[in-house]
Amino acid sequence: MEGTRRRSTKSIHDHKLVDHDESSAVIGPKASDALPLPLYITNALFFTVFFSVVYFLLTRWREKIRNSTPLHLLTLSEIAAIFAFFTSFIYMLGFFGIDFVQSLILRPSPDVWAAHDDEEDEEDLLKEDACKVPCGQALDCTAPPPQKLTVDPIVVVPSPLKPKAIDEVPFPTTLTEEDEEIINSVVAGRTPSYSLESKLGDCKRAAAIRREALQRITSKSLSGLPLEGFDYESILGQCCEMPVGYVQIPVGIAGPLLLDGKEYSVPMATTEGCLVASTNRGCKAIHLCGGATSVLLRDAMTRAPVVRFGTAKRAAQLKLYLEDPANFEAVSTAFNKSSRFGRLQNIKCALAGKNLYMRFSCGTGDAMGMNMVSKGVQNVLDFVRNDFPDMDVIGISGNYCSDKKPAAVNWIEGRGKSVVCEAIIKGDVVRKVLKTNVNTLVELNMLKNLTGSAMAGALGGFNAHASNIVSAIYIATGQDPAQNVESSHCITMMEPLNGGEDLHVSVTMPSIEVGTVGGGTQLASQSACLNLLGVKGACRETPGANARLLATIVAGSVLAGELSLMSAIAAGQLVQSHMQYNRANKDVAKVSS
Prior knowledge:
Blueprint: H1 2-5, H2 9-15, H3 20-27, H4 39-66, H5 76-96, H6 98-106, H7 119-130, H8 135-138, H9 177-188, H10 196-200, H11 203-218, E1 251-259, E2 262-269, H12 275-288, E3 293-303, E4 306-308, H13 312-323, H14 325-336, E5 343-352, E6 355-363, H15 370-384, E7 392-395, H16 408-413, E8 416-425, H17 427-432, H18 438-455, E9 461-462, H19 466-477, H20 484-487, E10 490-497, E11 502-512, H21 524-533, H22 545-570, H23 574-581, H24 588-592
Parallel strand pairs: 9-10
Antiparallel strand pairs: 1-2, 3-6, 3-8, 4-6, 4-7, 5-6, 8-11, 10-11
Helix pairs in contact: 2-7, 4-5, 9-11, 12-22, 14-15, 18-22, 19-22
């Protein structure tokens, strides 16, 4: 084995390949003679192209990073620049001598080959390098014929990589013939995309086939959208139709939030830098001052159908009937039979000519409850039709509810859970943790959240950024993100205490719409976040307790977020903090100018 591992310098010496004069005679004309321009001009041209392209690409990448544009999306100019980069780079490799680079790669390290102390062997090795013999031939004990030995400043290397088209669609390699037939059928329009789950009986396979068909129809790649690692069975008939993948959103943890004597680590799914960090600072300030306290004022989901009569008098008669306490028991019996947890609380009616809007409010247990209350409303409509056969039901929802839209009725009457959360922040904490002072915070809150919002004609938006925290928690815990609209209704109040030494801060949120069962709460990731908060699933002992607790955690988190953001604005730290956590590569001076 030793003999096979030892490099034989003797054989190289014996063969005497060529010396410098002989090689010159054998080689003949130089390869550079074939160039259309003198060698020094060609070198200068390729060097200029190389460094210009490098500068252009670095500039473009910096702009993409600043603008949050994916780096893999290329323009035609960038594709041309990449091609020029590879071309000039390959030429430079040839100019500096690819043989030398290959010799460094293929030459064995000293610990593999036995050391040679003979000066004659060292001279032979030097002579070998001077002959410009490629490394593969240098390791060969058989000398090549002299007439085939050439030295060329440009070495043959693989051609540059062909730039990939921007929208080139990568087709999977695991498709079966049956899959191909189904994909072609979907592309041709013979098989509806929505029917793949029922036809195949395999939700993941249906998603993969639908995804591939979509890529072929649109000629757009979905390579950045994950497909693997998701349970498509769990969303069938519940959360999403015709899936082709899923979107990844990072989840951060703010806290611990000390609320009503208990600590909670709050999951927040967001792509906005600084949001979790800011909420976390607010949680710290609240924790250092003994925590926050919450009060649940109301718990009722609403649905308001619209019906029409021949006359306004007839519509008014139904209004009086529904609002008469003597009829409430009969109406509630009809309403409550649709669910074990749905319980009618009250009915508020509004008349517009001969059209009647009936706003039903009911408890829904641990569910958010939209479907539950809708079924109860339908039961009531069927019940009252016996006495009002001329009633024309226009819609099960007449927007007097009001769902997923800013509305004064939600701001005044409430919808879902109505919560107030408060805390007293010590002056030392305001100065040391929040980096501001009590009087500045109170003044800023009055001029920004109260007066500024009134000047803007805000409806339920008397706060700094309640929707930021609400949306992040909703996405993390499987709530309906669209209900962030009314759930973010919030008024933030700040008042000085103890002669201006301490700060009383509160948030009042009349329409937090959350649930811990149903919808997206049953998905694995969202269920894990609910479990982190201790509100996963239904509460068996006290139905509705988990959903109510989740609502108070949302309000407490909003309190922390309001406290921290207002402090950052008061201290003039808003821009700097966002540059640090959200756009760290940007120059603050340039942004401000």
